[in-house]
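Shipment paperwork, digital attachment
Item: protein structure file
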Amino acid sequence: MPHANRAPPRPPQPDDVMRKLTALMPGDLWLYEYAKRLVRDGREKAQLPPLPHMGCRSSSHVLQCEASSAMGAVRHLWKTSVAEDIYHTAVFDAAKQAWDATNFTVV
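Attachment content:
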């Protein structure tokens, strides 16, 4: 039977894109492990698994990576409105200072 609505094949991705996606995989695996613990142990008892060091930090609106990370030096702000951009940047920078003070890395 022919596939009438089959999506066209995707072109192969450049090596740098594949390298960056592969570098982000520890974060995906961490999130998957935490989700398994939440289901198994419940929200109150689930322990966070050890965070992998990937050289990147993110919030709901900001992604920032160190130059030494596989992503290279990146600071990306998801655009919403100018006022929200200013707010989220300030909140992220304040959180980054707290993270740096405690050697805590958020992926």
